[in-house]
Amino acid sequence: MSPRSARLARLSRSVTFSACHRLHSKSLSDEENLKLFGKCNNPNGHGHNYKVTVTVRGEIDPVSGMVMNLTELKEYLQEAIMEPLDHKNLDKDVPYFAEVVSTTENVAVFIWENLQRLLPSGILYKVKVCETDQNVVVYKGEETMAE
């Protein structure tokens, strides 16, 4: 294969943000919330240092040698993740979570949707959110399970 042939690659960049939240569903009673979410249902909330890794994919440009300019990707992560989420109370400061439980799964969906609006169409591959070293969610844009 010649150096000019198209090659597909994935490029990832990570950011870390701090935020607090309370796992609580308005669809459940206080007792059901406590049973389901345990100490994470603390009325005063609790905090995390979330690590987010965003992966884009595309052809390696034969001129620049890049899938995407890292400076541009960094700016997109700043706008889609850091500005709306860093040092925020997710449930009180982020309108999206007023009606959506602020689980790590839903944080990943929120980030995906924000990035989809900013990035070139079709380039976003994966959003990985580490709430802790033990709790990690990977979201690739799927809406439902295949039948």
Question: What does this 3D model show about the protein?
Answer:
The protein has 147 residues and is an alpha+beta fold. The protein has a single domain (8-139), classed as 6-pyruvoyl tetrahydropterin synthase/QueD (Tetrahydropterin Synthase, Chain A, 2-Layer Sandwich). It has four helices and five strands. The chain has helices spanning 30-37, 70-85, 90-93, 104-118, and strands at residues 8-21, 46-59, 88-89, 124-130, 136-139. A five-stranded mixed sheet has the order 3-1-2-4-5. Strand 4 and strand 5 (136-139) form a beta hairpin. Helix 2 (70-85) crosses helix 4. The model has no long low-confidence stretch (mean pLDDT 94). Belongs to the PTPS family. GO terms for molecular function: 6-pyruvoyltetrahydropterin synthase activity; metal ion binding.
What's the structural blueprint in terms of helices and strands?
Blueprint (H helix, E strand, L loop, with lengths): L7 E14 L8 H8 L8 E14 L10 H16 L2 E2 H4 L10 H15 L5 E7 L5 E4 L8
Parallel strand pairs: 1-3
Antiparallel strand pairs: 1-2, 2-4, 4-5
Regarding CATH, which class? Alpha Beta
Number of helices: 4
Give the low-confidence spans.
none
SSE order, as H and E? Answer: EHEHEHHEE
State the distance separating the first and last CA atoms.
39 Å
Task: Give the biggest sheet.
Answer: 5 strands, mixed
Shape: elongated
Indicate the mean pLDDT. Answer: 94
Helix content: 25-40%
- Within CATH, the superfamily carries the name 6-pyruvoyl tetrahydropterin synthase/QueD
Q: Give the structural class.
A: alpha+beta
Q: Which range does the strand content fall in?
A: 25-35%
Q: At the third CATH level, what is the topology name?
A: Tetrahydropterin Synthase, Chain A
Strand order of the largest sheet: 3-1-2-4-5
